[in-house]
Design brief:
The structure holds two protein chains of two kinds.
Chain A lengths: L4 H7 L1 E5 L1 E9 L4 H15 L2 E7 L14 E9 L10 E6 L2 H7 L3 E10 L5 H6 L12 H6 L1 E5 L1 H8 L7 H5 L2 H12 L5 H14 L3 H21 L4 E5 L7 E7 H16 L3 E5 L6 H8 L6 E5 L3 H13 L3 E6 L1 H6 L1 H10 L3 E7 L16 H6 L8 E3 L6 H16 L2 E7 H5 L1 E5 L49 E3 L14 H17 L9 E2 L4 E8 L3 H13 L4 E6 L1 E3 L5 H6 L1 E8 L4 H10 L4 E4 L8 H26 L2
Parallel strand pairs in A: 1-8, 2-5, 5-6, 6-7, 10-11, 10-12, 12-13, 13-15, 14-15, 19-20, 19-22, 22-23
Antiparallel strand pairs in A: 2-4, 3-4, 9-16, 14-21, 18-20
Chain B lengths: L27 H11 L10 E5 L14 E4 L5 H11 L4 E7 H7 L1 H10 L4 E6 L2 E2 L5 E2 L23 H7 L4 E6 L3 H13 L4 E6 L11 H4 L4 H4 E3 L7 E2 L5 E6 L2 E6 L17 H8 L8 E8 L6 H16 L4 H5 L4 E4 L3
Parallel strand pairs in B: 1-2, 1-3, 3-4, 4-8, 7-8, 9-13
Antiparallel strand pairs in B: 5-6, 7-13, 10-11, 11-12
Classes of the chains: A alpha/beta, B alpha/beta.
Chain lengths: 643, 340
């Protein structure tokens, strides 16, 4: 029976909210990533600002019901601009006890918790390590703390699909859509985008129209359940956000990385050559690029990380835009190759989607601890340009920047993304392609030395870059190699003066890139008590914390570095305008070390290495603590200096 | 209009102004000469050659060739060569390196470039020793080899480069000797003509750290009885008197004396395209057997990696058209935020 929606609306009131963070969690086979992704799409298309945080285990199919097999997807959607997926979870959907157990503590007091009651049985309690005889749904403490809604989703899904003549296994796999239907109703979303997706994905791409049909039916059944069951006293509405006008799409960091590098190559009229070895969380980049062959993209899955960087350098020598992508452990393996590219003075971009380490660490969890590796992790003096996108969509812009700098300097550029950016998504205001400056590439075909052999290391006096002549160019045959070269001629040289000159020239060349790097911008007042300085994926958390601190009346500004080597030219000036510099980082103080070294100023760190992004509230609290301690110590000093 | 006529080259055209810094008497000189003499006989323009090497004495090779060249890092030359060839398949890529570089530190890349059948030519200068680092045993050194790093003898069994290549899926496998420049040239011409990875092992004398290790195969007196020159579709005869041959005995090869009822017709006839036979031949070792020289295996069965990859690109363009960047960015669900 189809319920009458008009009457249902009449009975239950709607409450308006500015922002909501929902988390879906369940077994890694429960389809939580797809469910969260669908909710995100529906919210984005509705016009909310969104930020997502998919959180999944490295195990592909961990034992069912175990806590380490729990997969989660958090999305914050809002009627204002937001920069993070949210600290506290306002609503949790837990498909099983393991999901409940591992996520419940992140839910705000009074928050909504919707559980699939059918999965809360003795067997599953045991699998996730609840004590015998304990049922969390009957825990008075938890029931006081949260609004727990028990829905027998397995049974209701089965009942709603009973007449379809389809096996129990396929039917049970529709539970996530049933849950999504309930949430769509509760948050006043339209189900159409998901209906279209299910028909397209299962119906057309997988050619399983029946699977599409049962999923659509489960989704609708869940939606109608919300409407008719009168389980929820109120439903919620989050109005569209007032974002900048223009056309948007939802984009994750890895997706934006793919599009950015394709655009960079197109802006130079170059072929893109991408070499990589599969590694979490960078593998989506080769998946994305491998389907873009008709854009002049060639992908090469190498035999190992070293083979990947070496093949890329070979392609750079031959004239392609050469790119490789990896994560921290792979970057370590590529170190010698990148050093050779420093010596060759060829353009090369290496993406490091940082993850929690060292060694294998926590491959699916984020961290920012490869900055010093990027900066120094090669033999001897081998400087590289380093850029770091600050948000998922910024990966697009910084990809174009990375190649612009690589060609400008004729040297390797490291692109430091991270697991949080790579998998997180946000709305992306689609760029005007014509507004992106072309990347000028010049492959000389005329000799620079009519009297003798071609001079491969005769530099541009402005940029210190050497010419990029490609094999196949008649008359300009030359050799490059890892042995130290005489400047200008490129011949092997062990001359001490020449070596010193070359080492300093390679360093100076990278520093000169600051000429084409935009100045660092400050959000909030230009000067004041505190500057929160960040880099990379922490932009959302730091920016939100800074905004919040100013809202509470504190003199706190924020600035975010997207260029880490060289730094923007105005960085020293910016730093000098604040009493206290605080650098929050997901490491033990790597940018802090570089800033202290470069500017000889004190810098205070807020450092976490939990495999997770900062919580905004924690940043606010720690900043306030630092401010309090500083003013106390200033008072102390003043008191002590009194006669 | 570009000049489409191929210039006539001589060995001098492929000689750089750099002093060759190998030790006097090193086998590498002869190999360098053979390569410089081979290139003028090919139909490639000078600017389209790229010589790539890793690290080691042999790896200095590119500095002495007046072509494009890349002296890379230890063991990785096959990966660099793959990138060069994929980026521009018009280039004629040659890889010259030593036994330590290609079979020890670079073993992985050597194996993979071979199985992919990237259209490059690999010349392995095998001197069974680490020369540049001053005389440690190499992966091709014999068991029990006494060197500075193995004072009581090497505990490693050596790798057999030819068996390695055949087992790894290489589509062209040959062997020659440094001082036999004429034979070297013949083999290199064959290697150059091969579409796919060609692999030529060259017995090379390191007269400083491993002198005379190949003398049994290179010296006039001993060569005829300790090597066998293979020719496609020709019976396998060898020996100073041309009175010995190879025969199959069950699943094994054996040496037989001609005469006493054994004639040429009883001997095994070389078939370059037979991978199983190639493996058996590659295993023949001095002093029990003559060691094969010449083309051991040559197959055109597999397409080249670079051609397959470029064909995939061509087909993608054919079926989707040249990619439209605007369409790519605007793909999927989009929405518009309008002025209020």
């Amino acid at each position: 029976m189809t319920p009458d929606t008009s009457t249902a609306h009449g009975r239950i009131g709607t409450k308006s909210l500015g922002a909501v963070a929902i988390r879906f969690c369940g077994d890694s086979g429960d389809g939580m990533q797809l469910t969260g992704g669908q909710f995100t799409n529906a919210s984005a298309l509705f016009g909310n600002d969104i930020a997502t945080f998919p959180d999944f285990p490295a195990e592909i199919r961990a034992p069912k019901g175990s806590t380490y097999g729990v997969s989660g997807f958090q999305v914050q959607f809002a009627s204002t601009e937001i920069y993070t997926p949210g600290d506290a979870v306002n609503a949790l959907v837990a498909m099983n006890p393991a999901g409940f157990k591992t996520n419940i503590s992140d839910v705000e007091p009074g928050g909504i918790v919707i559980v699939n009651e059918d999965e809360f049985d003795k067997v599953n309690f045991r699998k996730c390590g609840y004590e015998d005889g304990y049922n969390p749904l009957e825990d008075d403490e938890l029931n006081r703390r949260y609004q727990i809604f028990k829905v027998p989703m397995s049974r209701l899904t089965r009942e709603s699909l009973a007449d379809m003549g389809i096996g129990a296994k396929d039917i049970d796999r529709c539970r996530n859509m049933y849950a999504l239907g309930i949430v769509y109703w509760l948050y006043d979303r339209r189900i159409e985008t998901t209906v279209d997706f299910l028909n397209e994905y299962f119906g057309k791409q997988k050619n399983k129209p029946q699977i599409a049909e049962i999923n659509v039916r489960a989704l609708k059944a869940g939606y109608y359940f919300g409407e008719t069951a009168e389980l929820f006293p109120v439903r919620y509405h989050v109005a569209p956000a007032k974002l900048k006008t223009g056309k948007y799409r939802k984009i994750s960091g890895n997706e934006a990385t793919v599009l950015g590098f394709v655009t960079a190559a197109a802006k130079a009229g170059k072929k893109l050559f991408y070499a990589s070895y599969p590694i979490t969380p960078a593998s989506e980049i080769i998946h994305g690029l491998a389907r873009l062959k008709h854009y002049g993209v060639m992908t090469f899955q190498a035999e190992d990380e070293i083979g990947a960087v070496c093949a890329a350098i070979g392609a750079a020598f031959a004239g392609d835009f050469a790119l490789c992508g990896t994560s921290g452990p792979g970057l370590a393996l590529k170190a010698e190759g990148i050093g050779l590219a420093v010596m060759f003075e060829l353009p090369l971009v290496v993406i490091d989607v940082q993850r929690a380490g060292p060694a294998t660490g926590m491959p699916t969890k984020t961290e920012q601890a490869d900055l010093l590796q990027a900066m120094f992790g090669r033999p001897s003096e081998s400087p590289c340009v380093i850029v770091a996108p600050r948000s998922p969509s910024d990966c697009f812009d910084m990809a174009v920047e990375a190649f612009r700098l690589a060609v400008h300097c004729m040297c390797p550029v490291l692109f430091l993304s991270d697991g949080y950016l790579a998998n997180g998504a946000e709305p992306w205001l689609l760029p005007d392609l014509d507004a992106i400056q072309p990347i000028e590439v010049n492959h000389p075909t005329e000799t620079n030395n009519p009297e003798g052999p071609y001079l491969p290391y005769k530099r541009d006096p402005e940029t210190l870059a050497r010419p990029w002549v490609v094999p196949g160019t008649s008359g300009l045959e030359h050799r490059i190699g890892g042995l130290e070269k005489q400047d200008v001629t490129g011949n092997i040289s062990y001359d001490p003066d020449n070596h010193e000159h070359m080492v300093r020239t390679r360093a100076a060349k990278v520093l000169k890139a600051a000429q084409i790097i935009p100045p660092l911008e400050v959000r909030g007042p230009d000067s004041g008590d505190v500057l929160l300085l960040g880099w990379g994926g922490t932009y959302g958390a730091i920016t939100t914390a800074g905004d919040e601190l100013r809202r509470r009346g504190h003199s706190v500004s924020t600035a975010h570095l997207r260029y880490l080597n060289p730094f923007p030219s105005n960085l020293g000036d910016v730093l000098s305008r604040f009493e206290t510099i605080i650098i929050p980082e997901l490491n033990l103080g790597q940018l802090r070390m570089l800033i202290r070294d470069r500017f000889l100023i004190d810098v205070i760190g807020i450092n976490e290495v939990r495999g997770k992004m900062f919580q905004v509230e924690a940043l606010v609290k720690k900043t306030l603590e630092i401010m309090t301690n500083r003013s106390a110590s200033v008072c102390d000093r003043r008191l002590n200096s009194m006669p | 209009m570009p000049d489409t006529q191929l210039p006539t080259y001589t060995a001098k055209d492929f000689t750089t102004d750099q002093d060759v810094r190998w030790c006097p008497g090193c086998g590498d000189y002869a190999i360098l000469t053979a390569v410089r003499k081979t290139l003028p006989k090919l139909t490639t323009r000078k600017e389209d050659y790229v010589f790539v090497s890793g690290i080691g004495c042999a790896a200095r090779f590119p500095y002495y060739m007046e072509t494009y060249g890349m002296h890379s890092i230890h063991g990785r030359a096959p990966a660099f060569a793959t990138g060069i060839k994929l980026a521009n398949p018009e280039l004629d890529v040659w890889l010259v390196s030593g036994d330590g570089d290609l079979l020890s530190i670079g073993g992985n890349h050597t194996m993979h470039v071979m199985r992919r059948n990237v259209d490059i030519n690999i010349i392995l200068l095998n001197n069974q020793i680490y020369g540049l680092t001053k005389g440690q045993y190499s992966p091709t050194s014999e068991f029990g080899k006494k060197t500075k790093s193995t004072p009581v003898g090497s505990p490693d069994y050596p790798v057999n480069p030819l068996s390695w290549a055949i087992g790894g899926g290489c589509t062209f496998v040959a062997r020659s000797i440094d001082i036999d420049v004429k034979h070297l040239e013949e083999v290199m011409l064959r290697a150059a003509a091969h579409r796919g990875t060609s692999f030529v092992e060259v017995y090379q004398d390191c007269n400083i750290y491993n002198h005379q290790v190949w003398f049994y195969a290179s010296q006039k007196k001993t060569k005829p009885d300790s090597t066998i020159l293979l020719k496609h579709e020709t019976p396998m005869i060898f020996g100073a008197e041309r009175n010995k041959g190879l025969q199959m005995n069950g699943t094994r090869l054996e040496v037989v004396q001609l005469g006493n009822g054994v004639t040429e017709d009883d001997l095994l006839v070389h078939d370059e395209t037979d991978r199983g036979l190639a493996f058996l031949l590659s295993q023949l070792a001095h002093p029990e057997f003559p060691e094969p020289l010449g083309v051991i295996y040559a197959s055109t069965e597999h397409d080249t990696y670079d051609r397959v990859v470029h064909e995939q690109v061509r087909q993608a363009i054919e079926s989707h058209g040249e990619g439209d960047l605007h369409a790519l960015l605007h793909e999927g669900d989009t929405w518009v935020v309008e002025d209020e």
